[in-house]
Amino acid sequence: MVEKLDVIIFGASGFTGTYTVYEAISVLTNLRWGIAGRNRTKLEAVLEDVGVKAGKNLMSTPIIIADIDDEMSLLQMTKRCRVLVNCCGPYRFYGEPVVRACIESGTHHVDVSGEPQYMETMQLRYDREAQEKNVYIVSACGFDSIPADMGMIFIEKNFDGVVNSVEAYLQSGVKGGPADGAAIHYGTWESAVYGLAYAHELRGIRSQLYPEKLPKFQPLLKHRPLIFRSEIVNGICLPFPGSDRSVVMRSQRFLYEKEGKRPIQMHAYVVFQSWFTAICVTCFAIMFGMMTKFSFGRCLLLKYPKFFSMGMISHEGPSESRMERTHFSLTMKALGWPKSERNSNSLKELRETPTKTLTVKISGTNPGYGSTCVALLCTAVTILKESEKMPGNGGVLPPGAAFAKTSLISELEKHSHGMKFEILANK
Fold first, then answer.
1. Is residue 291 within 8 Å of 298, Cβ to Cβ?
2. Is 160 helix (H, G, I), strand (E, B) or coil?
3. Which ranges constitute the DSSP H helices of 260-326?
4. Which DSSP state fits 23?
5. CA separation (Å) from 312 to 80, 183, 274, 305?
6. How many Cα atoms within 13 Å fall on the side-chain side of residue 304?
7. CA dihedral 312, 318, 324, 330 (to 10 degrees)
């Protein structure tokens, strides 16, 4: 009988998959794990190269051959493990067959998707079936959704009162020398192009997924101007275009519907050091958005990523030197009311002006291919070790909903490419 593994990393020969294999050496300690993909030669090369880098002999690591286009191979793969770590994106094109195979096999599934259409479509189509099979399907398990969604959980655990709203400010930079070369791998660019091109799909998906809107508790969190200076982070800010807010609000809705918890309002922003940079990014975003609306524009963006990203995107991805010098911080400021007998029921409408604030920071290095891979693997470990602390018997969930009562945050803090959660101010 073939040994059943704890974890299989699928898509291990891809850019993110290779770095996930490297982090697995330290994160999956004392667990039985293997790698999977469609090309054995490439998978063996990954084990050899990563082994040399880590100073370990990985050649005895189990290799499973599986192909997105071969449903039987996916089933054979998912039946071999308890949790599948899926690094095979863009998930819009390649995610659903793997999710379907995991549910049929009774295998948990985690991935690093930042694609709202994919994540919410999977919830719409497979949430009930996943619950029936006692399977957890959790997306958005990397940077930047883990800092934002688990940051909300960290805030509530430390607020000592009722949180009304949170503003999140993402900063990133490169230390120790010029930020030369590409910053992001082509796969992320491809996901962004298609995600923005088909963003209109979200309205229809959400109308089916959430026929009833969340209640609006006062005071409402107002949107900031398109470009503004924030004293919280001493920088120039723009609305953050990523999936953070959509992931967070899915978790907040889940906690409201399942546990009767007052949903927290949240807006997300990205920070720049100068008005000039922020204005240039705004102009680029407008151009990028317009091009994604037309097939010809998408073709150009995908064919010439270096040109249209001013060298920030490449098929080769960033150098290891640049990755290790890249750092990030997510500063989150919460506003609400201190704990009292009057507001012990957080679903009550509170008329007083919010007076309590809590500011926290989540930070780390190598966000795209270090922190992301560590976070992804930590979610797999948490499912294996603490499923009894997770909600219900399974389902298609965002990370905040799935891991709110687990020790995922402390697990993330153990690793060199993990994340640090800290309180900056509590007033």
1. yes
2. coil
3. 275-292, 295-303, 305-308, 320-325
4. H
5. 38, 5, 19, 8
6. 8
7. 40
Among the candidates 109, 138, 167, a domain finishes at 138
Same structural domain, 288 and 413: yes
337 and 244 in one domain? yes
- According to DSSP, residue 227 is labeled S
What tokens appear for 68 in the block? 């997105």
| Number of neighbours of residue 89 by Cβ within 10 angstroms | 23
- Give the separation between CA 108 and CA 68, rounded to whole angstroms: 17
pLDDT (0 to 100) of residue 344: 60
- Could you report the per-residue pLDDT of 183-192, keeping only the tens digit for each? 788 888 888 8
Joined together, the tokens standing for residue 330 give 């997510």
* pTM (2 d.p.): 0.93
Closest CA to 242 of 124, 360, 113: 113
Separation between Cα atoms, residue 415 and residue 427, nearest integer Å: 30
Nearest partner of 46 among 58, 56, 38, 60, judged by Cα: 58
Lookup: tokens for 58: 């990985």
Domain that holds residue 342: 146-366+409-426
Q: How many separate domains does the chain show?
A: 2
Say how many C-beta atoms besides its own lie within 10 A of residue 231's C-beta: 6
Distance of CA 185 to the CA centre of its chain: 16
